[in-house]
Amino acid sequence: MSGDQPAAVRFEGVSKSFGDHVVLDDVSFEIPAGSAFCILGRSGTGKSVTLKQVIGLIQPDSGRIFIHGQDITGMESRDLTEVRRKMGFLFQDAALFDSISVGENVAFPLRRHTDLPNHEVLARARAKLKDVGLEEAFGQMPSELSGGMRKRCGLARALALDPDIVLVDEPSAGLDPITSGEIDQLLIEQRREGVTLIVVTHNIPSARAIGDELALLHEGHLVAQGTADELDASREPIVQAFMRSRGT
After folding, report:
1. Per residue in 69-102, is it b (16+ CB within 10 Å) or e — as a string?
2. By the 8 A CB rule, do 87 and 53 touch?
3. CB proximity list for 198: less than 8 A, separation 6 or greater
4. In whole angstroms, what is the distance from residue 232 CA to residue 88 CA?
5. Strands 62-67 and 36-41
6. Average pLDDT over residues 73-92
7. Strands 21-31 and 196-200, bridge-based pairing
8. Residue 143: CB partners within 8 Å, gap ≥ 6?
9. Could you tell me where the beta strands, DSSP code E, fall in the chain?
10. In Å, how far from its chain's centre is CA 50?
11. Over the stretch 193-226, which tens digit does the pLDDT of each residue have?
């Protein structure tokens, strides 16, 4: 990241609680534009809450969140919508609309956020599906797809508006190792094209493959951040336990 270029995402002393449960406690980090940042942690440690705060679905109790240098904390919904247009989100279960075709699922953000004519919307949707190896599924219904194909469709939809930042929640969930590796490669290709990736995952081999930096959340705190090699060298027991695990 050059000295005059703001981080794609920056958390500054962010805390969030739900009732008496502290999910994030004074968490700070920054993600350089065009890099891949993998967030690790046990279930309930605030990983998905962190993603939702990046897109403004959840507001922090304290601290500030910046997207490309712009403070989105407490931002009005109209302005937040503009920020979100530059982001894509791949949900853990792909979150496809089962009542419309695969092609129309990918076309949905284009219809909602652009004034492109129908033929251009469909052409772009088809191109995004081709990018993830799913062009032949354009006319199929989501119920006809395997888990891996649904994930690919979800990724194509997340990329429909050519976002600067893509948020990915558990890309390996429910997938066999080969399919998981294929999804990893699609994400790595996006990083190579300059997209900033923020990936929540339990899968350490996947995090090693994708992430420029890894961050481990534990009991509300960011207990480690760095390259996979740096986390491997940590003497913290919780970091060692995570980095030595082999699966999801």
Report:
1. eeebeebeeeebeebbeebbbbbbebebeeeebb
2. no
3. 9, 31, 37, 39, 51, 54, 165, 166, 167, 168
4. 30
5. unpaired
6. 87
7. unpaired
8. 98
9. 9-18, 21-31, 36-41, 62-67, 70-71, 87-90, 165-169, 196-200, 213-218, 221-226
10. 10
11. 999 999 999 889 999 999 999 999 998 899 999 9
* Rounded CA separation 234/232 (Å): 6
Domain ranges of the chain: 98-162
- Distances 66 to 60, 72, 117, 179 between C-alpha atoms, Å: 12, 6, 34, 34
- Give the span between the Cα atoms of 106 and 153, in whole angstroms: 7
At 111, is the secondary structure helix, strand, or coil?
helix
For residue 148, report the phi and psi dihedrals to the nearest 5 degrees: -65, -35
Closest to 198 (Cα-Cα) out of 2, 57, 70, 49: 49
Q: What is the identity of the amino acid at 166?
A: V
How many CB atoms sit inside 10 A of residue 227's CB? 13
Taken as a whole, the chain contains a residue count of 248
Residue 2 has pLDDT above 70, yes or no: no
